[in-house]
Write a structure and sequence with these properties.
The chain is mainly α. The protein has one domain. It is about 55% helix and about 0% strand. It starts with a helix and ends in an 8-residue tail after the last helix. One of its GO terms (molecular function) is aspartic-type endopeptidase activity.
C-alpha cells in the first residue's frame, strides 16, 4: 500500500517539477530576485503553444496526457514527451524507495 501511495505522490511531485522546470527556463536570467521566485511558483498552468489556461482534468499527471493523445485540447499541438517522462520517472522513483524502505513499516502502525 505504501508503494502505491508513494507512486501517486510521486506523480504529483513530478507534475510540479515539470512546472518549475518550464518556468525556470522562461525566467530572465539577468533579472534574478525574490519576485522571480514568486513568478515560478504562482499562476495557473497553460499550454506552451496557445497559452490557454488548462482545466483541472487536463492537469491529472500522466493520465491526462494519454487521454488527450499527447496533444493540447485547444490548439491540438503536441505536448512534449518531457512531461510524462518526468512524471513517470518521479512516480517510479518514489514507489521504488517506498517499496524498498517503507513497505515493512506500514503494519507497525
Amino acid at each position: 500500500m505504501a508503494t502505491v501511495l508513494s507512486g501517486v505522490f510521486g506523480l504529483i511531485v513530478g507534475s510540479f517539477l515539470n512546472v518549475v522546470i518550464y518556468r525556470l527556463g522562461k525566467l530572465d536570467t539577468e533579472r534574478s530576485d525574490e519576485r522571480s521566485v514568486f513568478l515560478v511558483l504562482s499562476g495557473r498552468s497553460y499550454c506552451p503553444h496557445c497559452h490557454k489556461t488548462l482545466r483541472w482534468f487536463e492537469l491529472v499527471p500522466l493520465v491526462s496526457f494519454f487521454i488527450q493523445g499527447g496533444r493540447c485540447r485547444s490548439c491540438k499541438k503536441r505536448i512534449s514527451l518531457q512531461y510524462p517522462l518526468i512524471e513517470f520517472s518521479t512516480a517510479a522513483l518514489f514507489a521504488l524507495i517506498a517499496h524498498e524502505y517503507f513497505e515493512g513499516l506500514l503494519p507497525l502502525w
